[in-house]
Design brief:
3 helices
Length: 65
């Protein structure tokens, strides 16, 4: 559960912090994915592509170090 404290009645700052936390947690991305039904075969393909992307990114990072 994501929560933010409002300090000095500054709602704009609290909203900005909330959006940042939600972005980091991946809530916006999940909402976008759940908006429409995704066939299981397409879901599996998407998740595999994401895993490959993460792995390649990690490999690039390891080679730089």
């Amino acid at each position: 559960m994501v929560s933010v404290n409002v300090r000095d009645n500054n709602v704009d700052q609290a909203l900005k912090a909330l959006k940042k936390k939600m972005q980091r947690e991946g809530i916006f991305r999940e909402m976008k994915l759940r908006r429409n039904f995704e066939k299981p075969s397409l879901k599996k393909a998407r998740e595999k592509a994401e895993a490959v992307r993460r792995w390649r990114k990690l490999e690039r990072k390891r080679r730089r170090d």
